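Here is one chain, start to finish.
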Amino acid sequence: MKKNENGLSLSATDLVGHLNCAHLTKIDLAVAGGTLRAPTFYDPFRHLLQERGSRHEQAYIDHLRLDGLSVVEIPGIGIEDEQVARTREAMVGGAQVIVQGAFRKERWVGRADVLLRVEQASGLGSWAYEIVDTKLSRETKAGTVLQLCLYADFVGGVQGRRPEYGYVVAPHTAFERQPYRMDDYGAYFRRAQASLVDAIAEQTAYPSYPEPCAHCEICRWSQSCEQQRRADDHLSFVAGSTKLQIEELRRQGIDTIASLAEMSTPLEWKPTRGARTSYERICQQARLQVQGRTAGRVLHELLPVEPGFGLAALPEPSPGDVFFNLEGDPFVGEHGIEYLFGYAYDDGGVVSYVEDWALSREEEKASFERFIDFVTTRLEVWPDLHVYHFAPYEPAALKRLMGRYATRENQLDALLRGGRFVDLYSVVRNGVRASVESYSIKKLEPLYDYQRDVDLVDANRAHFQDRSSSRA
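Its structure:
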């Protein structure tokens, strides 16, 4: 979203952003108008995604070249008159592939990843163009379809007819194009466009608030929006609260953590949606969080004992117990990779820890086999052992690896059927109430006196920078 001599220009990014968060549109308008400065911060994860996205796009272009197609690349990163004119010239000239074609139509601007020539009549002659978008996601999202629809409008304006199909190329599909019929999404696209245009026209009138949403994970405004929610004592910071519960509480005049902490229980009103007990539970959670803020430390209290739940779900300890954690990267290869198998165990009175790194498919398979063999062998000595993990990721990942490599099926099946895996997240969530905003293991560190030498944000930044420098 930028202001120029012709007014405000809009892009597919603005359209997708508005679809996810109306507040994003309002603050982007303030930046375009010069009343607000955009934040500048380095997000290593977003930087890595951008890098991988660029590599995927380049790999597809190289694939087209290997197929014998000639490629015309539109230089630069802007959408100036020169880039727009070059794109039109390439289309009129019948180029087989046009990369980063630049377009402008009324207030809308954009650059399409790839335009492919098809032998169909259009205003250009006996040929026309269809749009191909390269995306890292294995599942096409609504925003991607909106982007294709906007580019279809651009291309249609040049060649005299709208492309019938737009395509998405996901990683590790042998560059197979997933087709999307543009007319099937036309009404949705026009409605989204109209919504953004109306929001811009009413920018001083329509209310907005930085409610948390999925788009926060990739939004440059996420930190400043979180700061505002913290200043407002927003209910989203109550551990375990849901959007549905927050909306219901607001209808009852409860819109801060402090006011929720003071809500009387048992509940005196009937929720329109959800059970009374769920609201009473987050009320108690808010109460403890407020107490923890006042005390300046993490507080906790044990929940009532219930057979089979919480601490009562823990088995008897065994000298053979194993504490297991996996670290994975979902964007490596076709199915991601589990790159670090970490497990601790008692080795004759001394705690031993295994760091088994896997940076290739062969190493991943070997690491998986070593871990399963280790536990199986250990069972022969301590038949009462259990494997402890936090949250359900580890057993699910082991099952995926077993299926991927068709190995250790019987051993893993025996471990699963024997109830050897114990999820400590479930134990903690059902056994302890703590004054934390999330029951992730990192938020609970103060309860078991774990002290970090390096802050997590700094560790992530160093990790991504090291990986980038190693590729340079």
